[in-house]
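Quick one, T. Sequence first:
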Amino acid sequence: MPDPTRWGVSDAEAARHLPCDDLVPHPRATWLRGVTVRAPAPTVYRWLCQLRVAPYSYDLLDNPGRRSPRTLTPGAERLAVGQRVMTIFELVSFAPGEHLTVRMRRGAGQRAFGEFTLTYDVRETAPGTTRLVCKLLLGGAPGALHEARRRALARGDLLMMRKQLLTLRHLAEGSARAGG
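Structure tokens:
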């Protein structure tokens, strides 16, 4: 069975220091996910800003059945720390064109899933080709029960995050082909 804590990332990407590392210096778990997108970094980043609007994963599960928009939402790129992202996260830092870092908001999501902090990193690797890498850091309590819960959650997150990244890739590549 594949490792649910790592999908689509190189060793160099896994070793890279990202903004989430400064927020959770001693995580209980680190998960990494990544895709190559055949679109320029500004296009990929603009689609990443759409996470303010919807989760872009399995809409039936994480967007109460509403379809995540397939066109860019005007204004979604106007970011500010504290904004809601994917409903259960808040934006804690960003660098336009480079990264979004979000943290699970206090409340039901955090009670259900524990502490989550994520950085979505956007890097153009060649003209018109971008790597979109997400690093997820989990906090939480020590102990065998919590560790078993994190391992089980890693599999579910891989399923959801893989769908999200592939959807964002598809939409960004379509925008790039259309000249936008």
